[in-house]
């Protein structure tokens, strides 16, 4: 084998798009968007929020963002990478994602009510009905 072939086998070039692949911290799928905190997440978790996170030493982590992505700082340990933070707090993050938050009561969540209940509630309050609700009557 020539040295050129040997070097090409030993040192493979970079592949476009595989140098940095963002991972959703909640479900480990590919992250496509950012949530309100600026953390890369998948579309399913775009409204989810990260809980308060702790470092290995037990101190709280502060979130920062640079041109290379999200990272964290600890008062004692210094800079903590996003991947290291996921190793430390991964179970806690996934537990927070599994917990269901209580749905707000009232008309703010129309998926909870059937059309009949929605029409009765609007008639009781004296609110105008939509064309879909008028068709129901």
Overview of this protein structure:
With 137 residues, this protein is of the alpha+beta class. The chain folds into 2 domains: 21-100, no CATH class; 104-131, no CATH class. Helix content is 31%, strand content 14%. The chain contains 4 helices and 5 strands, in the order αβββββααα. It has helices at 3-10, 82-98, 115-125, 131-136, and strands spanning 33-34, 40-41, 62-66, 69-74, 78-81. The model is unreliable at 102-111 (pLDDT under 50).
Number of domains: 2
Please provide the ordered H/E string of secondary-structure elements: HEEEEEHHH
Low-pLDDT stretches: 102-111
Widest sheet: strand order? Answer: 3-4-5
End-to-end separation: 84 Å
Largest sheet geometry: 3 strands, antiparallel
Structural class of the helices, strands and pairings?
Answer: alpha+beta
Task: Return the average pLDDT rounded to an integer.
Answer: 76
Taking Cα atoms only, what radius of gyration do you get, to the nearest Å? 25 Å
Silhouette: elongated
Number of strands: 5
Q: How much helical structure, as a percent, in the residues?
A: 25-40%
């Amino acid at each position: 084998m020539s040295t050129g072939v040997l070097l090409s086998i030993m040192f493979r070039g970079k592949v476009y798009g595989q140098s940095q692949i963002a991972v959703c911290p909640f479900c480990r799928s590919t992250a496509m968007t950012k949530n309100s905190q600026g953390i890369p997440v998948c579309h399913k978790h775009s409204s989810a929020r990260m809980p308060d996170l702790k470092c290995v030493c037990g101190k709280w982590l502060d979130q920062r963002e640079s041109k290379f992505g999200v990272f964290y700082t600890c008062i004692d340990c210094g800079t903590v990478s996003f991947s290291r933070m996921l190793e430390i707090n991964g179970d806690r993050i996934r537990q927070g994602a599994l917990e269901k938050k209580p749905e707000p009561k009232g008309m703010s969540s129309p998926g909870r009510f059937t059309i009949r209940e929605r029409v009765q509630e609007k008639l009781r309050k004296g609110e105008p009905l939509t064309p879909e609700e008028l068709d129901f009557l």
